[in-house]
Amino acid sequence: MTDLQASLIAIGAAIVIAVIGYNKWQEFKAKKSVERAFASTRDDVLMTPSSREEASPPAVRQEPGFFAAGEQSSEFDGNALPAADGVPVAEEDFAIPVRAATTASDLPVDELVDCLIPLTLDQPLRGEKILAAFRDLRQAGSKPLHTIGLRDGAHWEAITHGAQYSMLQVGVQLANRSSSLNEIEYSELVMALRAVAEELGADPDIPDMKHVMQSARALHQFITEFDAHLSVNIQSNSEPWLISTLLIALEKQGFDVRPEGRLVMPDGEGDVLFSLSTNVTLAADTTSRLTLLLDVPRVSQAHNGFGALTACARSLALRMDGTVVDDGNQPLSEQALSEIAVQVNEFYANMLAADIPAGSPRALRLFS
């Protein structure tokens, strides 16, 4: 072996050792960063009332055949949202201004729906600087994220250009119909939020991951139990209806045809009261069956969605020579419809007791 070869081998070995050492150092730094990110013992505010730690009572009797295909009936109780795994979460250490900020109904963050993360600013900042820092941080996974600021020392609002804020509050939604916030989504959010905080000169107070996950799972359990779709069908008594003629009749009845092809009955305030399905593909010329569908938790009790749906079904059946039937094609009597209406009102009462009234901003966010 020549001196040159020996020197090259020595240099190569030194490089390999240096690379291994550098990688170990990077792993150590990453581990410490994660530990710092989740070292806080701050509790989550979602599940504080003691009534939310009680076991759920037996489910209310389910009327068969009135939930849309593929949907489960809702089982609900008269209590507020239960604590996940029966573990109560303390809230005494949350700052009073933060609590005040999240009780206003016109704010985009909500202490029951969101994981709240306060950011203490080193100095007041203008809204445009804050908005620029958050421009790429709009959600965690599929869960939307919103930011509010403390203006003039007492007034909380959504961040706007031209205003100046002394404190920030970030809220990421804990759950929706599809899933709850999970550990990976939360971890990625924390890392991204720390980068934004460093850019703004802010100190984020990160809630403990364990409590956040408990809150997210409990909220998603509530969504699952109250995720009710109520359907009533109209079956033709003779020949199938022509789709072209049917659409004219439905528009006269008050239905709107949305750009994506959905047929919906508006509630008069910009939202949907209930929808209609022809149960056939867009290419079909006829149909023998219509289905009216009420997304129960998204419609306010004040709009009487089920009453409007059944009245519409009766009117359509009368005008088009059809019969109002259940999913098993059995005629629905007035008595059966009345019994279902009672159950729907009980459903609404239980949503109200959980502080998530049907059709409210909270309900619309959760059941999305």
Explain this structure.
The chain has 368 residues and is of the alpha+beta class. The protein is built from nine helices and 14 strands. Strands 1, 2, 3, 4, 5 and 6 form a six-stranded antiparallel β-sheet that branches. The termini are far apart.
Reading off the top of the CATH hierarchy, the class of the largest domain is best stated as: Alpha Beta
The N- and C-terminal alpha carbons lie at a distance of: 72 Å
Estimate percent helicity: 25-40%
* Protein structure class: alpha+beta
Overall 3D shape: elongated
Topology order in helix (H) and strand (E) letters: HHEHEEEEHEHEEHEEEEEHEHH
Q: How many distinct beta strands? A: 14
Helix tally? Answer: 9
Arithmetic mean pLDDT: 80
Low-confidence spans? 26-103
> What fraction of the residues are assigned to beta strands by DSSP?
15-25%
The CATH topology label of the largest domain is Cell Division Protein Zipa, Chain: A
Rg measurement, Å? 28 Å
Summarize the biggest pleated sheet. Answer: 6 strands, antiparallel
Integer count of domains = 2
Which architecture name of the largest domain does CATH use?
Answer: 2-Layer Sandwich
